[in-house]
């Protein structure tokens, strides 16, 4: 999975830098960030408008409150039954004096209830492991109509946001006993988001002013003047606010010199999530095209333009984006860091770009200073930029089209900062592309927006109130054991020779782990300095958000030619996720993921190893997947493999590519080549976690009531249940095209079929679906 790389502007289609455990949570602040909100995730449980955190089952579009009440009552009955059943077992075991090894404490009963409530105990784990562990999950959780995907990550993330919302509602501005100006700004920003009266009063005026600032849009009366419009000026102005039409420019770590940040270029994002959706052979092509045009025309009408005229101009924008989509470098190529690394001078880049743009002038406008033509830059998609040149040569004289396209590339991101009708306009496209039916409630959207702007501040208050320091040391102990298991297993990897193995073990030892949160966020002085340039304009919510975007771009641009800080965090402390960065050879586990069900000291030890232990193994395995293996222990792109070991890795990887390509989800084949890195990490991570647990397993491991399961079985259930998930049909199709992970319901079964330990734990007959004759194993 991927998180944001160290670059600007933010786009949907980009080369991965960090490898994250759950890309749907990490990808560019989620699908809804594009047009509706600034959500940190793409799937959260919503609060009701009255602020209560409630559970319902999946709703029909026309669900009534009476139906919701009946379903809530049903869920409550199920929960009461499960707990009563477990209590009955405890009483029986006590009466029969068979309780010597059974934990009868309330927390043990609750843990057992949590695990069993999600399971379909009538299913055969050897036939379909996912159905066995998650078959009842959808009956136990809320699946809001506002989410294209919902899973365990979403549930835990939303609980974290419940805590954050309480923090935002409180009057305290204190961290560690000191007043923080940042916390004051943060709470003011949250209140401004809730003030819909003021937002409605301002109407479209904030967006109109922004459009004027970036050169005007011909669909509205916003000052477009063709005689004064210049591409190099407008492109720079748009980039300054973190948008990327035509191409993506960023500041990244030099893959071959991890001690330096450099300027980089790659292909941009598009309105639709992936280039395949512009292809006339795509199943939803006509619906997506219509939805995009309707969304744009509705927005233009709200801004004072004529609906039909705007729709015609949107059709021109769509056709232009379609041309761009046809020259995109395929995702399979972008997965190969050794093939896409191209260092060249700015002069050489200009030669690729052609004369449709003066790169020196453009970059001076963007950076604020002039770069020498001998300046080195990294270009990840030179083929795209080369093919862009003739398209731009033909289009350059059509300034109205270019202006309309470039403004559109920015304005679609602001719908959630305007009156409600704008967000609903964005739903025209989101309904078709993602399958969502409605927006999250206002309180939910405002928590997400506040997290986006003040993530380290909300994170500081979250960890101060909801994260135990003892968790750090306990989790570190588990991590050390998983690392040792991976290290000790390397001599058993028969396709790797001694020379490569020794270097791999050295790289593993050099991994830097970071757990919980960056310490500096609890220092008020440092926190206030970090956010000092974010301007909160009273009653101007849109403008305050705009300030944040510019400040973040400035923050990144200052990194150019500096030495990367290896202790820097790229994920907020409350995030329910984890990631690995190959250029820095580090793994990060935020506080947000270090809680039930991923980590809870009251859960069965084997279950915790299967969840958080496998997550840890997953992240460290990324250092040795199809991408991470190209980087040495210092994070430099270097071939440290012998030819024999490389051939062995490629052969073993092809086995897994072919295997996963045969798996189907909602009728669609998984893209084995695109998902290979995550599949390698899943399989390697579960194996390392299992080995770590097996070598550490205490003799006096306690038993839990009602769990007639061995510790080995609980280990695999611990991993599998974090992938209990729901996808809308539209999102299932899109995610297979865009996500570097296999769909969540596939992941437990993908592990099972490749694990002899799983088959042994569940006594699966040879030849059964989860114990096939042929397996794939890399690490």
UniProtKB/TrEMBL annotation:
Keywords tagged on the record: Hydrolase, Membrane, Metal-binding, Metalloprotease, Protease, Transmembrane, Transmembrane helix, Zinc
Superkingdom classification of source: Eukaryota
Cofactor: Zn(2+)
Entry-linked SUPFAM superfamilies: Metalloproteases ('zincins'), catalytic domain
Domain named Peptidase M13 N-terminal: residues: 125-518
Peptidase M13 C-terminal domain ranges (all copies): 577-778
Transmembrane stretches, start-end: 69-92
InterPro entries to which the protein is assigned, alphabetical: MetalloPept_cat_dom_sf, Peptidase_M13, Peptidase_M13_C, Peptidase_M13_dom_2, Peptidase_M13_N
Cited Gene3D superfamilies: Collagenase (Catalytic Domain), Neutral endopeptidase , domain2
Biological process, per Gene Ontology: protein processing
One Pfam assignment: Peptidase_M13_N
PROSITE patterns: NEPRILYSIN
Listed GO CC annotations: plasma membrane
Keyword Nuclease: no
GO MF: metal ion binding; metalloendopeptidase activity
Span list, region Disordered: 1-45
The protein, known as: Endothelin-converting enzyme 1
């Amino acid at each position: 999975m991927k998180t944001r790389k160290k670059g600007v502007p933010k786009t949907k289609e980009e080369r991965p830098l960090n490898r994250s455990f759950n890309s749907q949570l990490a990808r560019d602040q989620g699908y809804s960030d594009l047009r509706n909100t600034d959500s940190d995730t793409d799937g959260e449980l919503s609060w009701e408008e009255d602020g209560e955190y409630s559970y319902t089952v999946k709703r029909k579009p026309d669900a009534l409150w009476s139906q919701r009440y009946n379903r809530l009552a049903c869920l409550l009955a199920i929960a009461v039954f499960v707990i009563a059943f477990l209590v009955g077992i405890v009483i029986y075991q006590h009466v029969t004096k068979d309780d010597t090894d059974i934990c009868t404490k309330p927390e043990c009963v609750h843990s057992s209830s949590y695990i069993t409530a999600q399971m379909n105990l009538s299913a055969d784990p050897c036939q379909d492991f996912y159905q066995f562990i998650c078959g009842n999950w959808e009956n136990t959780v809320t699946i809001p109509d506002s989410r294209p995907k919902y899973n365990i990550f979403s549930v835990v993330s939303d609980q974290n946001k419940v805590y954050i919302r309480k923090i935002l509602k409180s009057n305290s501005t204190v961290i560690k006993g000191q007043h923080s100006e940042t916390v004051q700004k943060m709470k003011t920003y949250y209140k401004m988001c809730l003030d819909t009266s003021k937002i409605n009063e301002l109407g479209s005026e904030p967006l109109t002013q922004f459009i004027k600032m970036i050169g005007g849009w011909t669909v509205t009366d916003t000052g477009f003047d063709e005689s004064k419009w210049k591409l190099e000026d407008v492109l720079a102005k748009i980039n300054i606010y973190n948008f990327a039409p035509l191409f993506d420019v960023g500041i990244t770590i030099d893959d071959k010199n991890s001690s330096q940040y450099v300027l980089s270029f790659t292909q941009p994002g598009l309105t639709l999530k992936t280039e395949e959706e512009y292809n006339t052979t795509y199943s939803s092509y006509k619906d997506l095209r219509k939805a995009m045009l309707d969304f744009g025309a509705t927005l233009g009408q709200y801004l004072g333009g004529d609906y039909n005229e705007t729709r015609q101009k949107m059709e021109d924008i769509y056709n232009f984006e379609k041309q761009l989509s046809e020259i995109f470098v395929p995702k399979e190529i972008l997965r190969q860091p050794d093939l896409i690394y191209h260092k060249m001078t700015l002069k050489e880049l200009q030669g690729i770009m052609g004369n449709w743009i003066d790169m020196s002038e453009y970059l001076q406008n963007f950076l604020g200073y002039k770069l020498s033509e001998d300046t080195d830059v990294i270009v990840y998609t030179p083929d795209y930029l080369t093919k862009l040149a003739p398209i731009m040569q033909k289009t350059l004289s059509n300034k109205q089209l270019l202006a309309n396209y470039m403004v559109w590339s920015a304005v679609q991101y602001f719908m959630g900062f305007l009156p409600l009708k704008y967000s609903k306009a964005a739903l025209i496209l989101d309904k078709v592309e993602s399958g969502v039916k409605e927006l999250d409630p206002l309180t939910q959207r405002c928590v997400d927006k506040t997290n986006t702007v003040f993530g380290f501040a909300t994170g500081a208050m979250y960890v101060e109130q909801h994260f135990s320091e003892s968790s750090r040391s306990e989790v570190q102990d588990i991590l050390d054991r998983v690392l040792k298991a991976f290290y000790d297993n390397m001599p058993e990897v028969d396709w790797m020779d001694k020379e490569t193995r020794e270097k791999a073990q050295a790289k593993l030892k050099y991994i830097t782990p970071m757990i919980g949160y960056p310490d500096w966020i609890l220092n008020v002085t440092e926190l206030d300095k970090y956010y000092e340039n974010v301007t909160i304009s009273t009653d101007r919510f849109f403008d305050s958000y705009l300030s944040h975007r510019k400040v973040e771009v400035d923050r990144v641009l200052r990194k150019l030619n500096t030495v990367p800080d290896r202790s820097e965090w790229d994920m907020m402390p409350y995030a329910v996720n984890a990631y690995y960065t190959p250029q820095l050879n580090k793994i990060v586990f935020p506080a947000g993921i270090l809680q039930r069900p991923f980590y809870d000291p009251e859960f069965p030890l084997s279950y915790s190893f299967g969840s958080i232990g496998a997550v840890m193994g997953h992240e460290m395995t990324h250092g040795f997947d199809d991408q991470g293996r190209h980087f040495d222990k210092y994070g430099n792109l270097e071939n440290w493999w012998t030819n024999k070991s490389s051939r062995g890795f490629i052969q073993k990887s092809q086995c897994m590519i072919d295997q996963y390509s045969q798996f189907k989800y909602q009728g669609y084949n998984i893209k084995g080549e695109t998902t290979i890195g995550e599949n390698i990490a899943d399989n390697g991570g579960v194996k390392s976690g299992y080995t770590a647990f097996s070598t550490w397993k205490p003799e006096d491991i306690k038993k839990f009531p009602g769990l007639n399961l061995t510790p080995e079985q609980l280990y695999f259930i611990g991993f599998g249940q974090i992938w209990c998930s729901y996808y809308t049909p539209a999102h299932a199709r899109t995610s297979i095209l865009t996500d570097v992970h296999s769909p969540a319901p596939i992941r437990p079964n993908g592990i099972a079929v490749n694990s002899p330990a799983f088959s042994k734990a569940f006594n699966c007959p040879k030849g059964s679906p989860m114990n096939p004759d042929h397996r794939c194993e890399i690490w």
